Automatic annotation (TrEMBL):
<dbReference type="GO" id="GO:0016787">
    <property type="term" value="F:hydrolase activity"/>
</dbReference>
<keyword id="KW-0378">Hydrolase</keyword>
<feature type="short sequence motif" description="DGA/G">
    <location>
        <begin position="160"/>
        <end position="162"/>
    </location>
</feature>
<feature type="short sequence motif" description="GXGXXG">
    <location>
        <begin position="19"/>
        <end position="24"/>
    </location>
</feature>
<feature type="active site" description="Proton acceptor">
    <location>
        <position position="160"/>
    </location>
</feature>
<feature type="short sequence motif" description="GXSXG">
    <location>
        <begin position="46"/>
        <end position="50"/>
    </location>
</feature>
<dbReference type="GO" id="GO:0016042">
    <property type="term" value="P:lipid catabolic process"/>
</dbReference>
<feature type="domain" description="PNPLA">
    <location>
        <begin position="15"/>
        <end position="173"/>
    </location>
</feature>
<dbReference type="InterPro" id="IPR050301">
    <property type="entry name" value="NTE"/>
</dbReference>
<dbReference type="Pfam" id="PF01734">
    <property type="entry name" value="Patatin"/>
</dbReference>
<keyword id="KW-0442">Lipid degradation</keyword>
<dbReference type="InterPro" id="IPR002641">
    <property type="entry name" value="PNPLA_dom"/>
</dbReference>
<keyword id="KW-0443">Lipid metabolism</keyword>
<protein>
    <submittedName>
        <fullName>Patatin</fullName>
    </submittedName>
</protein>
<feature type="active site" description="Nucleophile">
    <location>
        <position position="48"/>
    </location>
</feature>
<dbReference type="InterPro" id="IPR016035">
    <property type="entry name" value="Acyl_Trfase/lysoPLipase"/>
</dbReference>
């Protein structure tokens, strides 16, 4: 028989964050809306931009603080590839910023459990990082193949986890009572392509969304802001707008989804 404390124990909530470049700032807006209403997370998983968000939130930063760090340090500009360069460029120039704001640089010392997805280029398999140096795992997860040099960890080459799973919900399954997913790659219908960059971005989004439904089905709630399709993955000047789109979508989800509203009420009680 359960004790009273067990019967009234708060549900553990997991959060899955997709990749998506600058569109990943919308995750911060979604998190702001959820945490403003009392939701707290026991486990966060992410890939690429979602990995960055997961790490900073798990380190104790408020979503708006992370937004300011991204803008002030031009973090995503450091992750932007130099298309004019001959050959691949290194993503390691962003490493010092992660170490600056999360100096312990350790999964173990984060306030919330974090899982970061990357792809082992040698084996062609998806890998989940849950321990070791945080910065190098994040950069591996953000390492777009064909643009950045692969990140080498223990003699293995790693690239962007979004290649195989851009919405890493699986690490949360069985480890959390409730799973909330934040996906920033809603695919709107279009009638024209205005540039080569738009073409590449569109093709990437189509590939990313091809198996999105499978991952969505693993979530109890999915928050997917519309209106992000007009922003390129490196459209860094739009960070504030994208944050607000995520925030408003989060508020809308809480208002319009009775089960999510019930979860909010329960979390507030505890």
């Amino acid at each position: 028989m359960n004790s009273g404390s067990e019967q009234h124990k708060s549900k553990t909530v997991g959060l899955a964050l997709s990749g998506g470049g600058i569109r990943g700032v919308s995750h911060l807006g979604v998190i702001q809306a959820l945490t403003d209403h009392g939701i707290r997370f026991s486990h966060i998983s992410g890939t690429s931009a979602g990995a960055i968000g997961a790490a900073f939130i798990a380190a104790g930063f408020a979503p708006k603080d992370v937004l300011n760090i991204i803008k002030e340090t031009k973090l995503l500009k450091l992750l932007r590839p130099a298309f004019g360069s001959t050959g691949l460029v290194s993503i390691l120039n962003a490493r010092f910023l992660i170490e600056k704001y999360i100096p312990h640089n350790s999964f173990k010392e984060l306030e919330t459990r974090v899982t970061i997805a990357a792809v082992d280029l040698g084996s062609g398999k998806l890998v989940y990082f849950t321990e070791g140096d945080l910065d190098i795992a994040i950069l591996a997860s953000c390492c777009l193949p064909g643009i950045f040099r692969p990140i080498v960890i223990n003699d293995r080459m790693y690239v962007d986890g979004g290649i195989l799973n851009n919405f890493p919900v699986e690490p949360l399954v069985g480890n959390c009572d409730v799973i909330i997913g934040s996906s920033c790659n809603h695919l709107p219908e279009i009638t024209e392509i205005k540039s080569f960059g738009n073409l590449i971005d569109r093709a990437a989004m189509i590939a990313i969304n091809s198996n999105l439904g499978v991952h969505k089905n693993l979530c109890d709630f999915v928050i997917e802001p519309h209106g992000l399709g007009g922003y390129g993955i490196f459209d860094t000047g739009a960070a504030d707008e994208i944050f607000m789109i995520g925030y408003e979508e989060g508020l809308k989800a809480i208002k319009n989804n009775g089960k999510l509203a019930a979860l909010v009420a329960e979390q507030k009680q505890h």
